[in-house]
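Q: Sequence in, structure out?
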Amino acid sequence: RTEGVWRPMRGLNITATGAGPAHALYFACYEKLKKTLSDVIHAGGNSHVANGAAGCVATLLHDAAMNPAEVVKQRMQMYNSPYQRVSDCVRAVWRNEGAGAFYRSYTTQLTMNIPFQAIHFMTYEFLQEQLNPHRQYNPGSHVVSGACAGAVAAAATTPLDVCKTLLNTQESLALSSNISGHITGMANAFRTVYQVGGLTAYFRGVQARVIYQMPSTAIAWSVYEFFKYILTKHQEERRAGK
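A: Exactly. Output:
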């Protein structure tokens, strides 16, 4: 109503730019580590510990690639954002706050995303065991498992996401209650959120976060499993041809 019908699409281009390499690292690392750790922990079977640990390590690489894009995206999506283009935002952040601003929330991002991805991957693999025990390509099971895994992980880690967003945006209302003028670090962000809105502030936006994550993880897993199936089938046909 206040900023136009296309306002919800702000930040799409920078998100898409960062998501490609970030997810390539993410899934490649996850598959390799999941197999390696599962063979050590539970040879020939599925290990939830291996799934969670592989998801945690994959998150380190994913967030290293994605964090600068996330900073720019969130600043462009703020209410009454002063930035019209991605390039304007990047230049302003670099000039006013330095290169470190693009990674100011990296450790906080990891603090949030490591438990998120551990819950996400373990939930997905658990649901796959229930819905698709033979682990065949089954689009319906991948969509449902991905959506449910994203919803559970999103709800559980909302307080961490609230603090990460505050670190990335340095929102003016929160800054006015902060003596130092800048909010740095998870502990400082947690205190500031509590000062501004109390306990309920930690779960502001939980519905929006769950609604966002469900289609996001459903699409990510279904597309990933589709290409995994196609590429694996192609490799098997090539081997059979030889």
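Residues 206-241 form the longest helix (36 residues).
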